[in-house]
Design goal:
This protein has a single domain, classed as Alpha-Beta Barrel (TIM Barrel), CATH 3.20.20.70. The protein is built from twelve helices and ten strands. It is an alpha/beta fold. The protein is 47% helix and 12% strand. The strands form two sheets. An eight-stranded parallel β-sheet has the order 1-10-9-8-7-4-3-2.
Amino acid sequence: MTGAYGGVWPVAPTPFQPNGDLDLPGMRRVLDCMIDQGVDGICILANFSEQFLLSDAERETLAELCLAHIAGRVTAIIAVSHFATDIAVARARRAQSLGADIVMMMPPYHGAQLKGNAAQIFAQYARVGEVGIPIMLQDAPLSGVELPASLLVDMARKIEMLKLFKIECPGAAGKLRELSGEGGGAIEGLFDGEEAITLLADLDAGASGSMTSALIPDQIKPVIAAHARGDRAAAVEGYARILPVLNHENRQCGFRAAKAAMAECGVIRSDFSRHPVEPLHPQIRAHLMALIRGLNPVLVNWGK
């Protein structure tokens, strides 16, 4: 395990009312439910928050509400990714002013063709680093940007505020192993993503935590804790127990899973997602709920 940061840091889903408006009381309930699940951190405005369906004004509303409501109870992370470096810098400054602990960024990209090269990626993270808030680099398939481990290690060594890495590319364990071996003290936290579907291999490779969805973080945290204390048998047993849920979420549901379960269990009023996102098929949703109830996580009874 690498660095000072670890544990389970789920992404908060963004609840909408059935007419598509933001559900701000629901957002507060989402955050409270996550904290009661025992999370170590909460990330907002990320891809699993449906950030790509939010206006700039809504981002500001949610940032202010969420940070005020979290109020230092857990580590607060805000995603600030943007293709334009000046906008990423401005978002990081605003996050810092609101009290965020960490900002998370994907490398600059826009669509399938506009992607930063190594020098441009380095420069953007360096500029955001000048704001003075810790940065988590998100290496996600969504960006389509190739990020060799050698580049990430070099960036970590030369950009003081680049302290954390979320690795969710294909073969994440291999890159995590390289970062863990080569990054030294420059890397203070290594996290995986992808709904923790490769969690055990990633922990073995040096991950210190996982940025999951808000679905069953209370069931994922014991796996991380067992691995951290050297009890690999308990980690394997815990991982095997939750793997059917993680697999169904990752392969069938994606970001829709947490909101569907929260709506089903009374945490929020609706699992509505804005067009062009389609709701989960009833059969997929029913199977999700059956798998979750078999684990009896905090979420199932929280809204009752």
